[in-house]
Amino acid sequence: MVRDGTMTASSRPVRVRIAPSPTGDPHVGTAYIALFNYVFAKQQGGKFILRIEDTDQSRARADSEQMIFDALRWVGLSWDEGPDVGGPFGPYRQSERKAIYAEHAQLLIERGKAYRCFCTGERLAEVRAAKIAAKDSFLGYDRHCRAVERAESDARAAAGEAHVVRLIVPDGQVVVRDRLRGEVTFDLAQIDDQVLLKSDGMPTYHLANVVDDHLMEITHVIRAEEWISSTPKHVLLYQAFGWDEPAWHHMPLLRNNDKSKISKRKNPVSINYYRDAGILPHALLNFLGLMGWSFGDDREKFTLAEMVDAFTWDRISLGGPVFALDKLTWLNEKYIHELSNEQLADALIAWRLRKDYLAQLVPLVRQRIKRLDDFVPATTYFFAGDLDYADVAAELAVPDVAPADVAKGLLGYVDRIEAREGWDHAGLEAEARAWCEALGWKAKHAFMLLRLVVTGRKASPPLFETMAVLGKELTRRRLRQAAELIGKRA
Ligand code: GLU
């Protein structure tokens, strides 16, 4: 199915989308971009679509898609069309649309806008090395296979020769008309003949994204600033297909306190962290709304419905909004104080006073309590967010290891447990054993350090079961916080 676009973005019913890749934990940046798409769609009486961009199978994580659904629902943003709710433009998972992309790549070949490239990995590496040696400022592909005649190309492909499909990037310039940034001009001499279809038949992000946005009749692309460098390629693709472009809006990136792009090293970035740390979903949404947009009358606290009513693009500010946790806590406090006693009790139950959570704690502490009233003191660290290490600060150490190396070591453990799929005590323990062995730390010392970091205490129920129940978010956060604290001693 190849559809030609005839109407302009502004004359069509508004359809917007988010297109997350299921590669890890659900990111606050996804909720932030989802919020602006949702608000605009609701205000315009349009549709908000969730599409899963999972063509890069090497990065896809099995549980990640479900976590995206759960996290967005928790925060209060629901979609009109998507892989789980269906809709008239499905499938909404790119891995189920492979044939559509191949068909569109073929169409571009037929129109003389793309070509098959048979160059081997070795040749590409040689070309690149030669360019580096010659101090060429453009290190992209040398367009060798543009010269292969169509008949020869067809015959080689029919004979099964491995190839990719590349876009013919013309000479000159391309202009991206961004509704927030004005016209941004890109010099095409710096743009590679982009691979559209890989040798395994999977599309690249660029082809799949453009084909889907067109077929799903997306009118406005509202996405993070980091994609703006891809947009010239997307504009070229729209031109090559002869389709109308959507209206581009590249939102300012969320930033760490030091203004660098938000990153997990400096800020918790998983939506699940905020849920586990006791942030109310309304407060998080309100906070994300404040990032990059202002209500217009200095108002900082507003509901989603109020934002839908008041939203205008001209109050987006492009200076990178800082994701300041203290501001989020300040807003959260206001929301908490507004809840009735009953609502607050319900919020606490939904957070960590649920029976299923208590049921996981019971087997861990039952041998350690004599009376029921011992339970709460024995489990405080299961209900805390950040821990106060003041009483154990001196013990956050490994004998004969410099504090800076202890800090680095802890972050190394975080990397290991993040790279794993799943969160179970056996895996956490296996990772810890491999980790301290690699560092040359005695397990006894390394495990005591982990215990102090995770529980704030020298004695606790079995360490890895404790981490498993406490959960990924709070465990990682404590490891990072402790690493920071220890690093400061260095
Ligand atoms: N798959 C991209 C992402 O992970 C989508 C970017 C876009 O919105 O075009 O965010």
Task: Tell me what the structure shows.
- By secondary structure, the chain is mainly alpha-helical.
- It has 3 domains: 1-81 and 254-353, HUPs (Rossmann fold, 3-Layer(aba) Sandwich), CATH 3.40.50.620; 98-251, Rossmann fold, CATH 3.40.50; 381-487, Arc Repressor Mutant, subunit A, CATH 1.10.10.
- Helix content is 45%, strand content 8%.
- Glutamic acid binds at residues 19-21, 53, 209, 223, 227.
Keywords:
490 residues, mainly alpha, Rossmann fold, Arc Repressor Mutant, subunit A, two-stranded parallel ribbon, globular, disordered N terminus, binds glutamic acid
Question: Which helices and strands occur, and which strands form pairs?
Answer:
Elements: E1 15-18, H1 28-43, E2 47-50, H2 64-75, H3 98-110, E3 114-117, H4 121-133, H5 150-158, E4 164-167, E5 173-178, E6 182-187, E7 195-197, H6 205-215, E8 220-224, H7 231-241, E9 247-251, H8 271-276, H9 281-290, H10 304-310, H11 325-338, H12 341-351, H13 355-365, H14 375-378, H15 403-419, H16 425-439, H17 443-455, H18 463-470, H19 472-489
Parallel strand pairs: 1-2, 8-9
Antiparallel strand pairs: 3-4, 4-7, 5-6
Helix pairs in contact: 1-10, 6-7, 9-11, 15-16, 15-19, 16-18
Largest pleated sheet: 3 strands, antiparallel
Residue ranges: pLDDT <50 for 5 or more in a row?
Answer: 1-7
Number of strands: 9
Which H/E pattern describes the elements? EHEHHEHHEEEEHEHEHHHHHHHHHHHH
Architecture of the largest domain, CATH level 2?
A: 3-Layer(aba) Sandwich
The total of helices stands at 19
